[in-house]
Amino acid sequence: MSHFRKAITFAILFTTTLALSVSSIAPARAGDPLYPDIVEQISHIQIQNEHKREMLRFSTIHINVGDGPLQIRGGGQVAQCTIDGVSYPQCTIATQEILDSSGNIVQTNPAGTALFHPQHNHWHQNAVVNFELRPGSLEGKAIATGQKVTFCMIDNDKTDLVQKHNKRTYFECNSELQGISVGWSDSYHQSTPGQELDITGAPEGVYYLTHYADPENHWLETNENNNFAWVKLLLSRKGANPKMTILDRSPCSGAACGSPSNP
Ligand SMILES: [Ca+2]
Ligand SMILES: [Ca+2]
To answer: What's the 2 CA to ligand 2 centre distance in angstroms?
Structure first.
């Protein structure tokens, strides 16, 4: 897994209701583009002491609740690239492929850069999600920003929300083709390197842990306004170790996002 710092400024997009994110009611015709819709879920929030640092760890799930798969192709012309000051020996242009109801590619869209990690034999997509911890309110200035911005996207878990496409399609990180099928999710457990924010010494109080999927808008989606997810937390320091209590969360979580087994 590759890590590098990235500061992204973006307008806060409040999560809209799920009813808005599941779009077209009319049956799609052959040739009509079927767009994905990625939403974020945050779970398994916990503070761990690691080498005298207080790390807020969390699991992250990207869920496709759209009309078509999120399909990303890379691996064509490979060359060195530098992103945010970090050099990568093998990079390729990533392209989103939009399919129709017959599975034909009917549209393509530039989707940033894919990076090859020889030690993992994985292609990773860049700028998939941005993590932050903001004090006081959603508009608070971030006191911690995640370093991980690359993911290998595959069909990890089938959600309960969208049943119309059950076929698992994307399951190999070493493929040049990655994606998330409709109704499937790609999850990253809190123990995965990069699934953390350093909150060492943060004062007691209310914080918002935020996730912003597709922060550079690489992917065309049916709903671009539901990619922002948050959890409202209370940090207390009564005992020997700090504790985070969940006070509230954005609408798309748990069963509402079709993943009741990952509340
Ligand atoms: Ca979306
Ligand atoms: Ca997008």
So the answer is: 22
